[in-house]
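Morning, I've got a small favour to ask if you have a moment. I owe you a coffee for this, so here goes:
>
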Amino acid sequence: FAYLHVAPDPELAQAMLAREVIGIGYETVGDEHGGLPLLKPMSMIAGRLAITVGAWGLQLVNGGKGTLLSGGPGVPPGRVLVLGAGNAGSHATHVAVGLGADVTVLDIDALRLDFLKKNYADGIKTAQATQANIAAEIRTTDLIVGAILNPGNLAAKILTRAMLRTMEPGSVLVDVCIDQGGLSETSRPSSHSKPFYTDEGVVHYCVGNMPSAVARSATLALANATLPYVQMLANHGLAGACAIEPGLAHGVQIYRGHISHPHIARDLSLPHTPLARLLGQTNP
């Protein structure tokens, strides 16, 4: 019971299948509102960190163009493009606006964009996340925060190499989606010890498990969210816990040698077996 992220890691998936592990992924556990309660606290932290590390990446010492996101008297602020208006994107927007950056948010969900626009009014610009809009915006963007979530799936490669070549050298991409494989053709995992690399002239930050950089805060936030589920599993077993909290069933990705999550089965090109069948129940 942890963050599994098996879709971009076939070797991990095969090891879990071979050992007949029951794997419940925090990142796909749902709730009655369609939310992701165990991903939410980490997305919040990753979104807030994204602006911090992006500002760091813009410094010359890291290969950045030397832009201060907040700007100053007589100095225009840096331009931030947030791709995704979900939990991580919303928190990235919050920090970027607080710094005084020039912020644009793109998403396909008009309701999420409307929510942010009402919160920040003229503090942000919003638009639909079409390929044309993304391509137009990145040409003048100093910092891109990639925060588009598709739970349990590989991230879509919405940023191409050709698109990144249109950005000014020393611009920065913080790919919060790297745990799902990243949203750029240029994204590959980096580490906390070597967080930055440059590709197509753009400084990339693609560190997996970003919240571990602030491990104390992340542990407190995650423990608060996960402990009730741990107690349910310990006291009632998997089937009983799923009966009490149906959203937990969405978190079961691998069950004793079978892929029980349809999106993961598709991405790994492996057969899918519904959890209800595996548990021998109609409604687990």
Summary: The radius of gyration is 20 Å. The mean pLDDT is 94. Residues 215-244 form the longest helix (30 residues).
